Amino acid sequence: MEPFPEIPMLGYDVVVIGGGPAGMAAAARAKELGLSVLLLDENDYLGGILPQCIHSGFGIHYFKEELTGPEFAARLAKRLVELGVEYRTAARVLEIRNYSDLEKVVIFTSPSGVYQVWAKAVIYAAGARERHAFEIGIVGDRVSGIYTAGEAQTLMDIYGVLPGKEVVIVGSGDVGLIMARRFALEGAKVKAVIELMPYPGGLARNVMILKDFNIPLYLSHKVVEVRGKGRVQRVKVVKVDENINEVPGSELWIEADTLVISAGLVPAVKKLKKIGVEIDPATGGPVVNDRLETTVPGIFVAGNSLVINDLVDYVAEQGELAAEGTKEFIDNGGIESRKWIKVEKGSNVRLVVPHYLSGERDVYLYLRVARPMEDVELRIPEIGKRLKLPVVKPAEMIRLKLKAEEIQKANKKLTVEVVKA
Amino acid sequence: MTTYRFICIVCPLSCAIEVEVKDGKVLEVKGHTCPRGKEWAVQEVTNPRRVVMSVVPVEGGALPTVSVKTAEPVPKEKIPELMKFLAGIKVKAPVKIGDVVAEWEGIKIVATRGA
């Protein structure tokens, strides 16, 4: 495929796609390492989803201080400006093209026109999308008043608009719980939080929110139907058994004008699939090595596009790691390893990244368990690694540091398992 | 005697704490693993407090609102009153992170987003 002679051309070492915490940290680190960088974001402002996450709890690891989302974003943005990183907002990426290992083209539109950027490496940090009502089996009338949690949050905390007065929230993950608090604080009545699983999806400290505001939590329940004329009027909730099958005769109707869906995030990787990046079905994100390089050389990924994280601190950390990867890639024409060690999932491990380790450097493994367990040991039998943990929950990502010497002890693979201590 | 059971929110360890209270006095605290947890649990049953975050409208900014937080935790039962106060505030750009945009019963309301 030939380039487009009619489109203005820009040239950089690295193009970073996405101006959230992963992208900003990546762009800053790449610039610090002496690379020329262009950061692209489709929003009108930098920060990704952080400027609307007005609650605190961000930055404890990365900045060693507890910050709100906007404060965390502002610190990263300040670092970008001080380093003189070039960025474009309102810049929507149409396509990534992979011409050869050190020749990538990113085509984007912006208020000043269409551009093609030639770069040696791309860091993809476009985040995730929210699962919506149709994906979780809700049927019924096509009415207004149905929002994803992120949409409701944007309306409330960016635009200052209360999306509804009587609210049912689907999903008790951290995002659902935090939105329950936002609605309750703003004087809306949160009628119920509906959770499919028999346990809450969010951190225990966020489950406390429900107690603070006397919000009922329905565990092992699901919303199956929405009814209304023009606007949501009532939602149908049913009980589910341990196999998530609906229990006949358990229906109940809750009157509400608003339904907020907080049913989890999915890495936004459509553009990566198009260029042949291999996807891990467990994470929904790309298969990567310990430099966060995908299976297409020179295409790196970080943040929620890689794996859904629960802490923004890990997202920013992944951004920096990907930037260090691009530096090595550009300097050496590729990411080298004497041997690649495959990371495999053992007992009660639902997902783990990165997928391949070189043993050339220390790494963090990020993993999630499939089901909650107490008094467990995280083990990697091939290298005799053991770590005692009092509690593991699917909602909480586990981060494990492995030293290069430890990784080198493995032959071909490492199996990560979580078993009774 | 009343026994309160809750999950500690001081750190991510999430200890299950039990506090026994009689005639408004704390008799015993069980289940905590650190002194901070114990202190929080006692406060939680005697005088629960929360830092409150919200947004207030801003005139002439890039976005229509600016996010704010209370500079210190406020008593839980006074939160609805504080929210009513915040609903009546309007600020003018420029606002910088850390600016005090208002004060309510001696508690500073601090901007957490620029505008």
Would you mind describing this structure in some detail?
Chain B: It comes from Thermococcus gorgonarius. Chain B: Keywords: Iron, Iron-sulfur, Metal-binding. The complex is a heterodimer of chains A (421) and B (115). Chain A is of the alpha/beta class and 421 residues long. Chain A is built from 8 helices and 28 strands. Chain A has helices at residues 21-32, 69-83, 149-157, 174-185, 204-212, 270-274, 312-332, 404-408; strands at residues 9-17, 37-40, 56-58, 67-68, 86-88, 92-100, 103-110, 113-124, 128-130, 139-140, 146-148, 166-170, 189-194, 217-218, 221-229, 231-239, 252-255, 258-261, 265-267, 299-301, 341-345, 349-353, 356-357, 363-369, 373-380, 385-392, 398-402, 413-420. In chain A, strands 1, 2, 5, 6, 7, 8 and 20 form a 7-stranded mixed sheet that branches. In chain A, strands 11-18-12-13-14 form a 5-stranded parallel sheet. In chain A, β25 and β26 (385-392) form a beta hairpin. Chain A is globular. Helix content of chain B is 18%, strand content 42%. Chain B is built from 2 helices and 10 strands, in the order βββαββββαβββ. Chain B has 2 domains: 2-46; 53-111, CPE0013-like (CPE0013-like fold, Roll). In chain B, a hairpin with a 5-residue loop joins β5 (53-59) and β6 (65-70). The N and C termini of chain B lie far apart (51 Å). A 5-stranded mixed sheet of chain B has the order 8-5-6-10-9, covered by helices on one side. Chain B is an alpha+beta fold. Chains A and B meet through α2 and α5 of A and β5, β6 and α2 of B.
